[in-house]
Design a protein that fits this description.
Rossmann fold; binds adenosine-5'-triphosphate; binds magnesium ion
Length: 237
């Protein structure tokens, strides 16, 4: 089978087995390491299971793991984003409904989980402690973000968590006094200042985004971050 057409988990299993092979001086997998085939497989299952715990919906997980998963323009934008230096702290996927923005954001978290796992094998630490890169919620709907109050410990999570997805920005309720906007400003400023990687999906276009969130937020996203317009046809069947 073409290596590229292998599903992500199989691809990673092959990479991990390469690492185990190298550990045995390239002599192939030793009996000991061969027995450890079960270990990579179970670690991959852990990585997979950690996605719903991080907040990715079961429907999105099923699409990520399904045979019809494809490299949509949004997935390509995520792949570019992964390769960018830390200064590129933010990616906004902006486009009409059903374009594959949320699935691409979920793919980003999946890649983080798997890349972390490969690194653990490379470092020979696969059996130690932590089972996944994710230790809490990394996927937040904008409505959830909008409900967090200034006195809530969750605000500090939103400001400081490495690798955060905010899905459907623009759907949260903005109160007339501007409290929600103020909290968003605080959160974006903190994340921008500390290179906290952030993927945002939204149905707003650049103009609508700027109008709703104002120049302070928009200019921080523009500084290093990428506002990516998604223009492909709807993928929703
Ligand atoms: N990479 C992909 N591979 C295969 N199917 C996909 C992919 N991305 C999206 N789809 C299909 O398109 C549907 C819509 O994708 P998604 O939920 O990511 O859209 P969206 O752009 O986030 O839309 P909205 O703005 O309404 O939230 C998915 O449920 C899935 O059926
Ligand atoms: Mg979506």
């Amino acid at each position: 089978m073409d290596h590229k057409s292998l599903r992500l988990s199989e691809d990673y299993l092959a990479r991990i087995q390469e690492i185990l092979k190298k550990r045995n001086n390239g002599e192939g997998i030793s009996d000991y390491d061969y027995c450890k085939k079960a270990v990579p497989e179970s670690r991959i299952r852990d990585a997979q299971a950690s996605l719903p715990d991080a907040g990715v919906s079961l429907r999105d997980c099923a699409i990520l793991d399904g045979d019809s998963f494809e490299d949509t323009p949004s997935v390509k934008a995520i792949k570019d984003f992964i390769l960018k230096p830390k200064e590129t702290w933010c990616l906004v996927l902006a486009g009409q409904p059903g374009r594959g923005k949320s699935i691409a954001a979920a793919y980003w978290l999946k890649r983080l989980a798997y890349d972390w796992l490969v690194k653990r094998f490379e470092d020979g630490e696969e059996s130690m402690g932590q089972r996944s890169i994710f230790t809490g919620q990394h996927w937040w709907s904008a409505q959830e973000v909008g409900r967090v109050s200034s006195h809530d410990a969750q605000l500090s999570i939103l400001m400081n968590r490495d690798n955060l997805v905010i899905d459907d920005l623009g759907t949260e309720y903005l109160d007339t006094k501007g409290h929600t906007l103020h909290r968003l400003d605080e959160m974006i400023t903190r994340r921008y200042s500390n290179y906290k990687r952030t993927v945002i999906t939204t149905n707003l276009n650049m103009e609508g985004f700027q109008k709703r969130y104002g120049n302070r937020i928009f200019s921080r996203i523009g500084d290093g971050g990428v506002f990516h317009g998604v223009t492909n046809k709807s993928l929703r069947v």
